[in-house]
Specification:
The protein is α+β, with helices and mostly antiparallel strands. The protein is flat and about 120 Å long. A 6-stranded mixed beta sheet has the order 10-11-12-8-13-14, sandwiched between helices. Strands 18-17-16-15-19 form a 5-stranded antiparallel beta sheet, with no helix packed on it. About 50% of the residues lie in helices and about 15% in strands. The longest helix is centred in the last third of the chain and has 83 residues, at about 520-605.
Length: about 800
């Protein structure tokens, strides 16, 4: 990619903002060095990795590379055979642990994040490094006694020697001749050896080695001869401890050095993942969407390079999002050259930079600040000539600087390139500049190179109008406020507002009329016609705005009505549920009465036929009462605005989110994860709205089937009372049908056959049962009934 163009488009400033979101020096360096991919596949993969990172952070905002550190210098030192400090070894361990934790998390969620999981799976796991460091170094960067047997033994001896030394020194504080010679009754240290502070004049009365004296000379710090050997032993053990610690650090550093290449691979993978998370965070910061990168598809029999440029709601990422005006920048299918005209400071240059910068960002794997559904071709290279090319060092004027740059661009550009030229032909005689600009533009068009040009020359307006493949565009200017609106209008050239502006600013009419008389009448007629087109377009835009406002009002009223219907339906269901519970209570009372009556008739040896008929009637009532109160369907509410390609939508019947990839009059194609499927427009709602629950048995939708949890392939009713068995059978049959089972086994046993007959009578009543039959003899025979459900 052309570095000069990237600098001109301010791509490094975007990378600097991206780098703020990294948490790891290697990934910070990668962010600042990020460049557009060399191929379409690489760019699309990078965009997909960013999309996965955004989804992962949305699900778990705390996801990161954890305690990873920049240990590259430590690895270099370890390879050279130097001993790493305990803190450096802890950094190595922390980095490897962070990598292991993140890799485990990504691999566990591989189905949702396959690209990020692939990066994690490729990370090596240097064997033994983490365990070795953990065994030897504490969390406070101290070498543990368990680092080696020898170190543990030395430290044990060192403790004993220290205690003996201090005990002897404490005893000397109260023993003559030191007791009377002491300046102060304390034990202190000088040069790593324990000493006593004595008066200078008492030096001759004690046998000791002098190590230091006070600033005044009144106090001497002496080591009694009685403890010299104890001090020596303590010091020897300290040196032995230090030497063993150094040996341990060298050993651990050697292990790190042996695994340095594997650890560097880990660092590289962590930097890649952190950069993906940084891209995701930056995308959220600028409210970006993933663009669709399209291949260049040259058309046969012509110069058209097959470019696609459809950026909706495009915003320059470096401008204040609160004030920047979103642009709709679209090249019609037959065009590949866009000529933008309009007033100074009207937004022509910003438009050019926006297109070039967004193209570079998309090809670098960055999501861009556009509306969903935006498309842009993948360019092999991007060239830009924008701004003041004046060079004092090379003695080049502004015009010469531009021409020098354009000469280079013409040599290097191909039909797979994007060329952006600002104020083409400016900086010299207007007549010659216009002729040169037209010739340069025609050269690019004839070569089939996608070109965006900003100009003031009216000759280029005429060229774009008359040339196949080229199209005019303009930035609007408000004559009432004498200020640009920064809106881009593709298909119409810019108007010449000089006379109108001069008139509004108070220039005398006779001067304006005289100027008008010098202009070619055909040009004035064209300007008047252009004015009329712009006025008609403004009226159309206002009418459209009123229509959209009316549509929003209707949607709000519809939503309010739907909410009211929801409340009414909730009240209806609540009343029915309350009535059902009352009926259940009364049926329970009736059942108890029937039971008592049966018992009394049985004792009196009276026939039970009447009681049986009453019981059956009560059971029929109970079946009706046990049916839960269901909510009536509430009319589907349409989205707040018409659905568009790239919209994030929720499929009501599935309760799943996806992105619209194709749109028809009545149906839409929605991408859900790795699957594409079709759904009715009325079944879609913009993401973020409430999703109604699905009451159906099963939802089959373009290859995606969701079912309830299976209750298992059989149920046993043996040993149950008829009433309990029927309740359990009802629950099981409902669950089995909802789970989509084709058949099920009902185990009722043989016995007297009463339970079997009750079960089969119940199966005959159910509309969800296609048929039932006795199981084969080797599978239970008369003790088992096999039921087959309707599809």
């Amino acid at each position: 990619m052309d570095e000069k163009a990237l600098n001109t488009l301010e791509f490094p400033k975007v990378l600097e903002r991206l780098a703020r979101h990294t948490v790891f020096p290697p990934s910070t360096e990668r962010a600042r060095a990020l460049r557009p991919a060399n191929g379409l596949d690489g760019a699309q993969r990078s965009l997909a990795e960013t999309a996965e990172a955004r989804l992962m952070l949305a699900n778990d905002p705390q996801t990161s590379i954890g305690g990873a550190r920049d240990i590259r210098l430590s690895l270099d030192n370890a390879v050279r055979g130097l001993a790493l400090t305990p803190a450096e070894l802890l950094d190595v361990k922390g980095t490897l642990v962070a990598a292991r934790v993140l890799a485990r998390k990504l691999v566990e969620e591989q189905s949702s994040f396959p690209l990020l999981a692939g990066i994690a799976e490729a990370m090596p796991s240097p064997a033994g490094v983490v365990d070795a460091i953990s065994q030897a170094i504490s969390a406070r960067a101290e070498i543990l006694d368990s680092a080696s047997l020898k170190l543990g033994s030395i430290r044990s001896e060192l403790g004993v020697a220290h205690e003996r030394l201090l005990a002897r020194m404490q005893k000397l504080l109260t023993t003559e001749p030191f007791a009377k010679a002491l300046q102060e009754a304390i034990v202190t240290q000088r040069d790593g050896r324990y000493v006593l502070p004595i008066k200078a004049e008492a030096r001759s009365r004690v046998k000791a080695v002098v190590h230091d004296q006070s600033a005044s000379g009144a106090t001497l710090f002496v080591e009694p001869l009685q403890v010299v050997e104890l001090n020596n032993r303590w010091r020897e053990l300290q040196l032995a401890e230090r030497e063993e610690e150094r040996r341990i650090l060298l050993s651990l550093s050697g292990l790190v050095g042996e695994k340095a290449e594997e650890i560097r691979f880990v660092l590289d993978a962590l930097a890649t993942l952190d950069l993906a998370f940084a891209c995701a965070k930056y995308a959220e910061e600028i409210d970006a969407n993933i663009p669709e990168l399209m291949p260049m598809n040259p058309k046969r029999g012509g110069q058209h390079p097959g470019v696609v440029l459809r950026l909706f709601g495009a915003r320059h990422p470096l401008l204040d999002p609160k004030t920047v005006v979103a642009l709709d920048i679209e090249l019609f299918p037959e065009n590949y050259c866009l000529v933008i005209t309009g007033p100074n400071t009207g937004g022509k240059t910003v438009t050019l930079k926006t297109v070039g910068l967004l193209a570079a960002m998309a090809q670098s794997g960055l999501h861009i600040p556009v509306e969903a559904g935006s498309q842009i071709s993948f360019f092999e290279n991007i060239y830009a000539d924008i701004g003041d090319e004046q060079s004092i060092e090379q003695s080049l004027s502004t015009f010469s600087g531009h021409i020098t740059n354009i000469v280079r661009i013409l040599k290097e550009a191909t039909p797979l390139s994007l060329v952006i030229l600002d104020e083409l032909g400016a900086g010299t005689d207007p007549q010659e500049g216009a002729a040169l600009a037209r010739s340069l533009l025609d050269h690019l068009v004839q070569r089939g190179i996608t070109t965006l040009v900003a100009t003031h020359y009216p000759e280029l307006k005429a060229y774009a109008h008359a040339t196949k493949g080229a199209v005019n565009a303009s930035v609007e200017f408000d004559l009432k406020t004498l200020a640009p609106t920064f809106h881009l209008v593709v298909g119409l050239p810019g108007r010449s507002n000089a006379l109108a502006i001069a008139k509004r600013l108070g220039l005398q009419n006779e001067i304006i009329d005289a100027a008008r008389n010098t202009i070619n009448p055909s040009e004035l007629q064209a300007e008047d016609l252009l004015d009329e087109i712009h006025r008609e377009r403004d009226r159309t835009r206002q009418a459209r705005g009123r229509a959209e406002e009316a549509q929003r009002t209707a949607q709000e009223l519809k939503a309010e009505l739907a909410e009211r219907l929801e409340k009414i339906e909730d009240e209806r269901v609540e009343i029915l549920e309350k009535t059902r519970r009352q009926a259940q209570n009364e049926l329970e009372t009736l059942r108890d009465e029937i039971g008592k009556l049966r018992a009394e008739l049985a004792r009196a040896r009276q026939p039970l036929e009447e009681v049986q008929s009453v019981k059956r009637a009560a059971e029929e009532l109970e079946e009706l009462v046990e049916q839960p109160s269901r909510r009536a369907a509430v009319p589907e509410s349409a989205p707040d605005r018409p659905l568009r390609l790239g919209d994030q939508v929720r499929v009501r019947s599935l309760g799943r989110q996806g992105i619209i990839t194709a749109l028809g009059e009545a149906e839409a194609e929605v991408q859900i994860g790795a699957l594409r499927a079709r759904a009715r427009l009325g079944d879609l709602e913009l993401a973020g709205e409430a999703v109604p629950t699905n009451g159906g048995r099963e939802m089959e939708w373009a290859g995606i089937i969701t079912t309830a949890d299976s209750p298992g392939g059989e149920i046993s009713l043996r040993g149950q009372r008829v009433e309990d068995a029927l309740v359990n059978l009802d629950r099981y049959l409902n669950a089995a049908y909802a789970a989509g089972l084709h058949s099920a086994r009902i185990i009722h046993g043989k016995g007297t056959g009463t339970l079997r007959e009750v079960v089969r009578r119940e199966l005959g009543k159910r509309g969800t049962v296609e048929r039932y039959e006795t199981a084969p003899d080797n599978q239970g025979g008369e003790g088992v009934t096999v039921v087959y459900f309707k599809a």
